[in-house]
Every structure is written in C-alpha cells, then in structure tokens.
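At this stage, I wrote out one protein's amino acid sequence and its backbone structure tokens, and that material follows here:
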Amino acid sequence: MPGGFDYRLPAVRSLRSPTAFRDLAPSTASFRDAVLAGLRRTSKQLSCKFLYDERGSQLFEAICDLDEYYPFRAETDLLRRHAAGIAAALGPGCQLIEFGAGATVKIRLLLAALERPSAYVPVDISGDHLRQAAAALAADYPGLPVIAVCADYTRRFPLPDLAPGAGRRVGLFLGSTIGNFSAPEAIAFLATAAEQLQGGGMLVGVDLKKDPAVLDAAYNDAKGVTAAFILNLLTRINRELDGSFDLANFAYVGAYNADAGRVEMFIESRRDQVVRVAGQPIRFRSGERVHVENSHKYSVAEFRALAAHAGFRPENVWTDAMNLFSLHYLAAP
C-alpha cells in the first residue's frame, strides 16, 4: 500500500539553474528484495512501479501513440479543450507537483494556460528518463524553476519546498495512474495528499468504465507493444539482478475482470522451469502467472466518493464526448 509522500524539506531559496535534480531512487538492494519476495509468494507478483526503467519508459511512450490506446489521447484532448477552466481551478502562481511525470508532455498544455506558475516539480522513478525530460522542459520554459525528483512516490519521501511567497501547492496525478492502486491504496495515497496539499488541490486523471471490447483492444494491442512493455521487466531483472529469464518461455496476458472493474496484467510461464534471480532459484509451473499490474476503472460518482473518503472536496469534473476518460479537480480543505 502506498505510504504517501512528505513535502517537508528546507526551502529552495535560490536556483543557479532553472532546473535541479534530486535522486531519491530506491537502491538496487530494495529492488532485489522486493523481486525475490514477490516471486516467492504462493501467488507470485511484481510491482508495476518496476516497469519503468529507461527502456520501460520508452515503451510506455510508444503505447501512448497506439491507435487502440485511448487513455492518452482522451486525456490530452481534455487538457487541451478545457485548459482555461483547469487553469482557473488551479489558480495563479501555483506550485505544480506531478507524480509519475514521465515524458512531461501533458504539463506543457497546462503551462500554456496557467497564470504565473511558480515552480514545476516532476516526480518519477525512472531517473535517466526524468532528467532528460526535465532538462528539455526547463529549456523551453527558462523562467520556470524546475526541480526534478527521482523517487518512488508510492512511499513517503521528501519533496522540495520553495521560498516563502510561492503559491499554493497543486498535485497532478495524470494518465489514469490512480487506477493502478486498489481502492484502499488509492484512498491512502489521496489521504496523504489531502493532508499535505492543504489550501491547494489535486488534478487526477481517471479512466472510466466502458465496453470491455474497448479495454481488450487497448491492453492487447495488435503490435504487441504492451506485451513488450510488461515483459521488459524480466529483461530488467536479468540485467540488474543477474536473472536467467528466457523471455521465449514467458508470455504477457491481459484481461478485463468485470466483477472487480479492472484490467489485470500478468506474465505467464509457458512451461515448468526454474529461473535464477540474484543467485536464488525460483520455480515456475506451466501456466503459472505473475501478477504485474491492475488498471481499475471507475464511474464519475465512484471516484468522487473515493476522493471524498480520502479527505478531498470533489469539485470540477471534465469528461470527453464518448465518456472514455475523466479529469477531476479535488480541493484540499
């Protein structure tokens, strides 16, 4: 379950450069321990946060360009169409803190509409990818302080604060990433955010419930990019933990669970086999699955109730004409 995040760091009183980088990435040891613990479970599992090494981040960007993958297009279109209304909700002079910033594509749509944003703090677990994206954005917005933080935002970690006089804090959690959490995890994450963003707010991208056929196409694309993205985790384990996974012996499986209201993603073993990870043997049965990721879908009412339970006051909601996706502005009392 996410442990939340903590904003209490000494203020950044001056920046010699419009961009700064803070590396709070988890250690290789923590990655190893988490992988071994997950693969030793009776029902094997690996956290989706480990999907985003540099190659994984590149593959996810490729997924966003696929015809079948509607979330990126729908959310981007909402940001573009409703930029003025969103900017009014976020307010002038705000500090933007984006969790899971990725390639920092969508933030540009907001920056073009916002009035005098005081800083942008992109947070992501893929350090190299984040560093490059933050530097490119800082170059395009030379008057905007950009303080990039490489960290696992599902755990408590310190975020930089700006000097006194900076505007209120506004969190950004886009890309339907909230759907990767179970309901209790989402509530815990949002509850911590509500406490830390007092007087500010949070903009959250939420994927809506829809025809399962649309979901099946989005998460089982014809080009196999999603499969490559999920299976890249095994490549990362081989590289960083001296693993012996033969990717030809594993397959990606993605399916919608209507009862749970979520797409479930797995890595499935094609045969009985033993794989070594960090010198430890891990046995797989033929057909055995490793759970990697969920993507929960909500109705507008369901997510507003969840956010209220976490301590936010739900305010604005923007949805597309086909009711594929939604953006929620939540006020932090």
Observations:
- Residues 11-27+64-210+298-331 form a domain with the Rossmann fold fold (CATH 3.40.50.150).
- The first strand starts at residue 11 and ends at 12.
- Confidence is low (pLDDT under 50) at residues 1-18.
